[in-house]
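Annotators were shown the component list below and the corresponding predicted structure, then asked to write short factual statements about the assembly.
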Amino acid sequence: MKDTDVLRDIHQIIEVPHTAQELLSSERTPTLSMALPAYELLERKWTQLQSTIWELSHYIGVGIDKLKQYVNEGRKTRIYAFSMSGFL
Amino acid sequence: MLNGSHEILTDIFIRCFPHVVNLAVQAILLELDANPCIPVLAASTDPADQPALQAYARALKNDPIGECRKIVSACRSSGQRRRRLQAVISEGNENGYWRGKLPDGKTALPMVQLLRDCPTRWSSTFKMVDRVLTLNPVHIRTNITKPGIILLTLSYRQSNHFYLRRRMLTSPISP
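Structure shown to annotators:
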């Protein structure tokens, strides 16, 4: 097992949030309505990676936990649901 | 008073998406750094997987991201070093040295510099690792026995063990 191979695995893991951020900041219009779906997409992709890069499953789990912690805090406000409803 | 306003604030507070994502990524990187062995070994209970997992844990313990950072620091520490890196890339592009060594059938390396990461910049660790992997065909090795010397090697005709070595700078790397 070469260090570069491990680095490629880590690269794959941190590429997901990078892509999610690019997606969200690519629009010129505010994309608040996209925030919750983007969190869910990120969580789903990371969960998939837990089975492909199973050696690093624990570390991906740490990221998912952190993400969930903030998303649950965020769910306390209704602004996301409101923005997704299309009235804004 | 603060407690009361905090309750109201949580109700109207819109969390910054990239910031939250960055915190999650930082949590992963911190855990990789602080605890590189046991979680890897515990990833499978099958004894047959253990040798592979031990090798994986050893590689992770070498701190590949920290190594990236060292390489980036060494290659960016002066204008001379930056120019040398560009010279090696363009030399390889001109004489077709990278042909067959790059993914997706590419024949030339982009004329780019390595990037340094920073915890408060979103995606910066990803960009650093991405660039190091892109320029991975350039043999950049920091010299461990003599810190401050970095070797940039273009290994021509590897089968004949004929190496073209470029010694970049002999002055110590400034912290």
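Statements collected:
1. Chain B has seven helices and three strands.
2. Chain B touches chain A through 46 residues (CB under 8 Å).
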